[in-house]
Protein: ATP phosphoribosyltransferase
Amino acid sequence: MLDADALSGRLLFAIPKKGRLHEKCLELLSGADIQFRKDHRLDVCLVKNHNIALVFLPASDIPSFVGKGNVDLGITGQDVIRESQMQQHVTEVLPLNFGKCALQVQVPEAGPIQAAEQLVGKRVVTSFEVLAGEYFGRLDEQLGLAGKNKTNIEYVGGSVEAACALGLADGIVDLVESGDTMRAAGLHAIATLMQSEAVLIKSSTPKHETLEPLIKLITARIAGVVAASKYVVCEYNVRRSQLHDATRLTPGRRAPTISPLEDEDWVAVSSMVEKKRIADVMDDLTKIGAEDILIFNLDNCRV
Ligand SMILES: Nc1ncnc2c1ncn2[C@@H]1O[C@H](COP(=O)(O)OP(=O)(O)OP(=O)(O)O)[C@@H](O)[C@H]1O
Ligand SMILES: O=P(O)(O)OC[C@H]1O[C@H](OP(=O)(O)OP(=O)(O)O)[C@H](O)[C@@H]1O
Ligand SMILES: [Mg+2]
Structure:
């Protein structure tokens, strides 16, 4: 049985229990070798190989749990940190390079509204009533709307994109990643409130100073997994005479590793390259005569 004694002294680490961030968080924990077995009936479980307990919570509740110091560390989206008005109480320790999306004002594509200002005084449906309220509050003020004439912000918990078709709203404020959901609902975006990604957060006023070394260790491990997902190792052979151009193309993080080959005119080069740039880099290496270009994914790293 899991009771308060079992949790006492452990670092509490909040993980989204479902939704878009859940699977990615499990991959991060596995990459950082944080081992646990979760009973599906319980939202708290002990980590086997560290003095940590994982707490599985809705992503939108995690900012206030961390901000109030009820848990020590958490993963959630920057959007829900701002929506819960917890920015002053939580510290963003590390961006995690997933859960990337934008909070946008959307309206029916075929309709008359083409700018957010035209929605002022009308009905807006959203799960982000604080952020949408602030945004349209500013527009209301700029356009001098007050009282009953102000933009009407209404909360729904999900499936926000259906609101316009159902006749409940003139526009919505919701998250967009690929845009598939928005387009399927016949909507298009006319303004962006914020960009968001998943972040590792800790309390700005931690209750347990003694846990700080463990927080640092976990942060370093997770940073290693995140960096590994951003980089590849690029290895190739190139003529010594082209080495200057080659190192300009693949400068590495500190410097590329250069090894001699049996053929004295040639060297082997090994270098970390950002994954998103690798196709261009391979094209450019080919142009300067590099051969045998090999790309390796990283499972983990410390850089
Ligand atoms: N389509 C998306 N692409 C990338 N990140 C997203 C997307 N939708 C949401 N997110 C991020 O994930 C966080 C959690 O949202 P999500 O909708 O997955 O949670 P939920 O509402 O608890 O789950 P569910 O929608 O399954 O009930 C959001 O605050 C946002 O940061
Ligand atoms: O631009 P896209 O790639 O289509 O992603 C955007 C959708 O993802 C989220 O919904 P989710 O899947 O969490 O469902 P929900 O609306 O029920 O929360 C968000 O609320 C959008 O509806
Ligand atoms: Mg959702």
Summary: Residues 260 and 267 are 5 Å apart (CA to CA). The chain has three domains: 4-98+198-228, 102-196, 231-297. Residues 19, 158 surround magnesium ion (ligand 3) (CB under 6 Å). The first helix runs from residue 4 to 7.
